[in-house]
Amino acid sequence: MDLKKNLSLTDLILLALGNIIGAGVFVILSKAIWIGKSSTFYVFVLMAVLSILSGFTYSEISAQYQSNTAESDLLKDVYGPMVENIGGILIYLFAIFSAATIIVNLSKYATKSYTTLLSIALTLIIAAINYAGIDTSKAVFNSIGVIMLIYLATFIFSSKISLPTLSPPQINPLLASSMFALFLYNGYDAIVKVHDEVIDPNQIPNAIMISLTITTIIYIIISWITQQTLSAKQLSTTYTPLSDIFKINLTRYDLGKHAYQISFLVGLVIMFNTAFVSLLCGTRYMYGMAKTNHIPSIFAETNRYHAPHYAIAISTLIMLFFCIVNNENIAIIVTNVCVILLLLLINAGLLVLRIKTPPKGYQMPLYVRGIPVLTLIPILGFSILLVYSIINYSKYIYVN
User: Fold this and answer.
1) Could you tell me which of 100, 13, 99 has the C-alpha nearest to residue 55?
2) Which domain holds residue 132?
3) Number of domains in the chain
4) Is the separation of the CB atoms in 196 and 5 below 8 Å?
5) pTM of the model
6) CATH number for 17
7) How confident is the model over 145-181, as pLDDT tens digits?
């Protein structure tokens, strides 16, 4: 039984926004700002440029291969079966590790006690929604996506915004912060991974660009507000930065306590949605791999709701393992190393592919003699981040 085509352009945008912005803006954003210090603005500009250019690449490979597994299809054509298999594992683990990272963060955001038990319970709830099929999943991520946009708009308009005083970036804080900020931009690939459930796949490039543009605007504004409102000490210790700022900004209206509580609860719901979408994408990618006989065909089997139930089961077990480990910083580093490697391989892969064959359908801007020169920028940028993360990752595993 095939997956059900039921996702429109609006659905794809809300899916991507929920996957990109959701958890990061509540927890990881404060870590990126604390580490980046005066270089934070440049960190977000750098990540926006690298992500948008990689978004062009993802749009093009989605049009080229027309499948949930477009990334691994590209790896096979360019590098061969061995790299395809390694890349396929990285793509899948990236989705599952992202979900696990968010769930652990959510549990610590929610309570200081019983975080492991809460992580396990939330993972099982996510699996149950996923099992119920794309109609139920769509209702969940669309509803929470709208709530998230309303919440962030309220946060921005209730805050005092002034332009930051910019100083020249410092290389070490810039790169160190980028290791966390990269996680904030993860998630636009979700649109490609649900290809088989999209009504009009030609809308995929539009969905990727719109979601990344909205994300960049929101992140830059919120990072300004956060830096201007919270001290370095508060940034280094808080798990609830946006809720803390709501409390501070609305205290003058005697709404501080209630604003904190409401923001806290909304944050839980939005973070839950991000983990849910990440797991959803991981299962759809596994389904696609099984459908093309790259892994056992049992993972392409679907239940009566058109959901790949065996793929959901194995993905849930992997997430439960990370819930027991209960260290979100290890998961962040592992996730980022996976995604940096993937983005390097995929951007370089498209460059090599275009030397051999012309585009099919969508074509990114700025081709020179048949070569997508914009891919050179993320190849350079992610190469630098990969080397830096390998050399320095141990310093950030135990960042509180």
Assistant:
1) 13
2) 9-396
3) 1
4) yes
5) 0.87
6) 1.20.1740.10
7) 999 999 888 888 878 777 767 777 788 888 888 877 8
